[in-house]
Amino acid sequence: MRPIIDIDHISKQYDSGTVALNDVSLQIEEGEILALLGPNGAGKTTLISIICGLVVPSGGTVRVGGHDIRRDWRAARKMIGLVPQEIALEPFETVIDSVRFTRGLYGEGPDEAYIEQLLRSLALWDKRQARTRELSGGMKRRVLIAKALSHRPKVLFLDEPTAGVDVTLRREMWQVVRELRAQGVTIILTTHYLEEAEDMADRIGVINRGELLLVQSKDALMGEFGKKRLTIALDKPLAGLPAELQDRGLVLSADGATLFYDYDTRAERTGIARLLADLSGCGIAVRDVSTKQSSLEEIFMSLVEDEPAESQEVPA
Prior knowledge:
Layout: E1 5-13, E2 19-28, E3 33-37, H1 44-51, E4 59-64, E5 67-68, H2 73-78, E6 80-83, H3 95-105, H4 112-121, H5 137-149, E7 155-159, H6 167-182, E8 186-190, H7 194-200, E9 203-208, E10 211-217, H8 218-225, E11 227-234, E12 250-252, E13 258-264, H9 272-281, E14 286-293, H10 296-304
Parallel strand pairs: 3-8, 3-9, 6-7, 7-8
Antiparallel strand pairs: 1-2, 1-4, 4-5, 9-10, 11-13, 11-14, 12-13
Helix pairs in contact: 3-5
């Protein structure tokens, strides 16, 4: 099946010489949630802006639903909804009129039943006659999402959609995202809340310094890069590690009461059984043992921490 978004060797260099994207290729399947992660200035917003037709690439092609974003831009853009980072709304326009107006820009006729359903799903129905300048920041962001969905797009871009909103709204937004995915909408999101990506995404892409470092399913990424940490609570604190345990990769806590041991879950042998036996052989009594999987945040940091961004991403 043809991907709904086909990004083929996209590059972007600005007149200043800044290279925002360097030969990025990516295929996004219909109905999936792709989380695009990267530090500030990595190229995330530039890539989204190119796909949405807001920035012209220096090279390469992008197709949305088979439509080239430059040659067949009208059909391509009609398939896309975008929730930008910046909150830009007409301050004196009412919520419902703002959403109606955006729907009209895409050539869609009136559909009051759908507009009501959309506003209710985002808890905006009671605010439909309020002017946008009267809304809180979180409510304004809901309006942006409603506007992006006003024409029933097949692809939805969420560029830092929960930045600056409260926990309740964040949960409501992700419930809407789940419902949209269930309806077949393809969702591409950028977020600094990595627990959201870990919870929501089917695949995760990591971009840094304008280059796409990897794109993998979340489970495969966690399996390939994720490690587990064994935490061993000791019955009595140690002044230091015995000589017999110095080369076992153990880390002793500052208070001497806990040992830490990182191991690869994919290895044929983790060495845990032997380690516990060696502890017993050294006369070290264990009070408790627990394990913890590496988080997506830890994996992400391990990928980008050795590649500091040299360029600044130019806002669309």
